[in-house]
Structure formats: structure tokens, C-alpha cells
Design goal:
- The chain starts with a strand and ends in a 7-residue tail after the last helix.
- The chain is mostly helical.
- The relative contact order is 0.11.
- The model has no long low-confidence stretch (mean pLDDT about 85).
- α1 (about 30-55) crosses α5, α2 (about 60-75) packs across α5 (about 125-145) and α3 crosses α4.
- The chain contains 6 helices and 5 strands.
- The protein has helices spanning about 30-55, 60-75, 80-90, 90-105, 125-145, 155-170, and strands at about 5, 15, 80, 110, 120-125.
- The chain has 2 domains: about 1-60, no CATH class; about 60-175, Arc Repressor Mutant, subunit A (Orthogonal Bundle), CATH 1.10.10.
């Protein structure tokens, strides 16, 4: 029996041993697209779990490192909270919790904008820069190990091109 893709109770795509009620109505292209979507979710979750394991000794999560990376690359090592939300694809409350955790550990600080009191910046601290210098290369090595070693340069380039085409067609700017 062919496996079907469905969205489970957790919101994650999963393979089901029994076909979905509408499987007969799906075209081959739709089934292929759903299977690709499920595979992308599984790969993302797997690589995230492996990266989390690799970072556990530093007591930092991949999301926290990603924020430190974004801040380290930003002018004056700071970003508006709304920019953090957009670039990390997190909700406003998710960004607030993330910044709260890093602020409590002294890795970032919030700063108000003198021209517009509604604007709040997340700013990298000296301690945050040190954490980034330690965790950034470890995250990069982890991703390269758990994702990059399974694909050659040509396959990686083709995947990047395909994913970029999807983002462009759907009106999403690739978060950099």
C-alpha cells in the first residue's frame, strides 16, 4: 500500500500507513509535492535536533545562536525586534521569549530608540559576542556535518536554487 502524507496532531507532516480520505483525488504532482513537503519537514526537524545535541555543552539552542548571528551581522550589532521576528520567522511573542532568555544570560540587551519610543532594539553585548564566537562555528560545523556531508556541491546548489525559486514565486524574501 502506498504511504500517504498527512498533517498530524502536532502540525507536522507525517507519513500515514492508511491513505487519507482524499488520496484518490490527488494528482501525482500533488502527491509528489506533499511527499517533498513532508521530507523537508523531517530533514529540518532532524538537522535541528542534531544541531541542538551538538550545542548542548554550550547551553545554547540553534535559535539562540541564529539570533546572535543575525545581530553580529547587523549594523551596530542591533536589530529592531520586528526585524528579528521577520528574519527568524518567529511570532512577536516567540521573539520576546527568545530575547528574554538571552537578556537574562547577558548575551543581548534591549535598547529603546531615541527618535521613536515604539521601537525597541535587540543589541548584542560583549558577552553575547563571545558566546557567538564560540557557538557560531559549532553550529556551522554541525549543519555542514549533518546536512552538507550527504550532498555534493552541485546538489546543494540545485536545492538552494529550487528553494529560492519557491520563495520568490510565493512572494517571500529569503531571510538573510
Amino acid at each position: 500500500m502506498e504511504e500517504a502524507v498527512r498533517v498530524g496532531s502536532s502540525g507536522q507532516a507525517e507519513l500515514a500507513s492508511e491513505p487519507c480520505r482524499d488520496d484518490a483525488e490527488l494528482s501525482a504532482q500533488e502527491r509528489d509535492a506533499l511527499e517533498l513537503w513532508a521530507a523537508l519537514l523531517r530533514v529540518t526537524n532532524t538537522i535541528h535536533a542534531r544541531a541542538s545535541e551538538d550545542l548542548v555543552g554550550l547551553d545554547i539552542t540553534p535559535e539562540e545562536v541564529e539570533l546572535l548571528i543575525r545581530l553580529s551581522r547587523a549594523p551596530q550589532e542591533r536589530l529592531r525586534m520586528v526585524e528579528v521576528s521577520r528574519s527568524l520567522l518567529l511570532s512577536k511573542s516567540g521573539v520576546t521569549r527568545l530575547v528574554d532568555r538571552l537578556e537574562q544570560r547577558g548575551l543581548v540587551e534591549r535598547a529603546s530608540c531615541s527618535e521613536d519610543r515604539r521601537v525597541v532594539y535587540a543589541t548584542l553585548t560583549t558577552q553575547g559576542r563571545q558566546a557567538f564566537d564560540q557557538a557560531g562555528p559549532l553550529l556551522a560545523a554541525s549543519v555542514a556535518d549533518h546536512l552538507g556531508r550527504h550532498l555534493d556541491a552541485q546538489e546543494i546548489a540545485a536545492m538552494q536554487e529550487g528553494l529560492s525559486a519557491i520563495l520568490a514565486a510565493e512572494g517571500e524574501a529569503a531571510a538573510k
